[in-house]
Structures are given as C-alpha cells and as structure tokens.
C-alpha cells in the first residue's frame, strides 16, 4: 500500500491483483526498459524512484519525467503500444512491485460493471498527470535557470522519499537535467551557501524545504497540484 495508485484501488480489484504482485529490489542505475524495447511488466515503485529519459542518436539524454510511489511504469501498454521511445533507469534505489502485463491488461479490459471503470479511469488520470510532468519539464528546461531547475528536481524527488536525504552525485543530476556539471556545481554551491542544502560527495541533505520552494519556479507547483488532483479524484472512483 506504499504505492499511491495501488492504495487507491477498491478492494474487489486488489483482491484479484495483489496475489500477482512481486516485490523486487531496484538497484541504483538498473535499466528497467530500453528505448524501443518490448515491455513485459508494469512497475509500481514503493521506495524506489525511476527516471524516464529520452535518448538522442548521439547518446546524449535528459530526464523527461520521474516515477516514484505516486505512479506506475508501463503506461504505453494500456495506451495501445508495447514499447516506448524513452529509457527507464533507477534514479533512487529501493523497492517496487512488478506485475505481469497480461494480469493488469485483463483487469483493465474487463467489460461491464463499476469495477472496470475504476482501474481504467485511474490509469488514464495518472497518464494525464504524467503528461503534465513531461510537458512542464520541457518548458522548465527551456525557460528557467539551472538553479530553479535544480530546486524543482530536488523537491519532486523529496516528495517521493520518506526523508530529506538524497544519495545523488552532481554528475548524475547534471545528466538528469541535460546540463553541464559545472552548472549544477555552481547552483548547488549557491543553495548550500544560503543554507538550503548540505552537500558532500554523493549525498545531499535538504535543510530548508521552504527555502527551496521559494527559489524554484512555478513548474514544481503545477506538477504537484496535478498529482494531488489525481489522488483526490481517485478517492471518488
């Protein structure tokens, strides 16, 4: 029940799905699926966070969205496709529930009765929230400063974790945001001097969350509000 989507499902659906859920370890850096590869499972993260990247022909990439305990990996399966152009890698190590594609699709495609509509509507609402995150990330990367982007990224990551500590190198964050490492070093240094974060190699501790929220752009609030609306509407299903 640590995954918010699974927790939002009614009891009749969970009784059918939960026996098929497999709790798996998601090590840092693991590739969950390759760009263009066939998807065989859905993943419902609990304590792990997965980063979705778009991979360019020259090997460069940037994060287009993150998925943690608020969501699911594999939306292209119930949207009509068996593959996706994005690359999914584990950004924060932890656990996730894995579910075979066939099991969820059988439930998703059930006809008649309210039990069909609940899962169908919940997954489509999540997809809309995910699309909002992807769109807002694109706008943020184009129009906002590296410091604002870093604040947004830190806050969205914190929302998916139980603590204020992040295991993450500046090089990895730079790869997520698609910027030079020097830009992240400068932005992180400024946040540290202002007392908002504490940074030592491979480890970031957020000291002043309110300060981060004051320094970020509107993109964080837009994404957070959309996921909050998703969960609020899910309770009505």
TrEMBL record:
Residues 5-90 form the Cyclic nucleotide-binding domain. SMART domains: HTH_CRP. The keyword Ribosomal protein does not apply. Residues 144-210 form the HTH crp-type domain. GO terms for cellular component: cytosol. It comes from the Bacteria. One of its GO terms (molecular function) is DNA-binding transcription factor activity. Keywords: DNA-binding, Transcription, Transcription regulation. PROSITE patterns: CNMP_BINDING_3, HTH_CRP_2. Pfam families: HTH_Crp_2. This is Transcriptional regulator, Crp/Fnr family. The lineage of its organism: Bacteria, Pseudomonadati, Pseudomonadota, Gammaproteobacteria, Methylococcales.
């Amino acid at each position: 029940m640590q995954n918010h989507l699974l927790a939002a499902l009614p009891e009749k659906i969970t009784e059918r799905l939960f026996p098929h859920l497999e709790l798996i370890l998601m090590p840092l850096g693991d590739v969950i699926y390759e760009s263009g590869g066939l998807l065989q499972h859905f993943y419902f993260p609990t304590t792990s966070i997965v980063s979705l990247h778009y991979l360019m022909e020259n090997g460069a990439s940037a994060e287009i969205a993150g998925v943690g305990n608020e969501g699911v990996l594999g939306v292209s399966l119930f949207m009509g496709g068996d593959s996706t152009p994005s690359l999914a890698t584990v950004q924060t190590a932890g656990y996730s529930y894995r579910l075979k594609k066939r099991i969820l699709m059988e439930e998703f495609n059930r006809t008649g009765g309210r039990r069909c509509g609940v899962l169908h509507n919940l997954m489509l609402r999540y997809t809309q929230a995910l699309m909002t995150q992807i769109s807002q990330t694109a706008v943020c990367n184009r129009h906002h400063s590296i410091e604002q982007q870093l604040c947004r990224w830190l806050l969205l990551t914190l929302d998916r974790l139980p603590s204020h500590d992040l295991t993450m190198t500046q090089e990895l964050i730079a790869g997520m945001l698609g910027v030079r490492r020097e830009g992240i070093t400068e932005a992180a240094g400024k946040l540290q001097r202002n007392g908002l974060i504490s940074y030592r190699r491979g480890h970031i501790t957020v000291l002043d969350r309110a300060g981060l929220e004051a320094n970020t752009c509107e993109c964080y609030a837009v994404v957070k509000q959309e996921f909050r609306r998703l969960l609020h509407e899910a309770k009505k299903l």
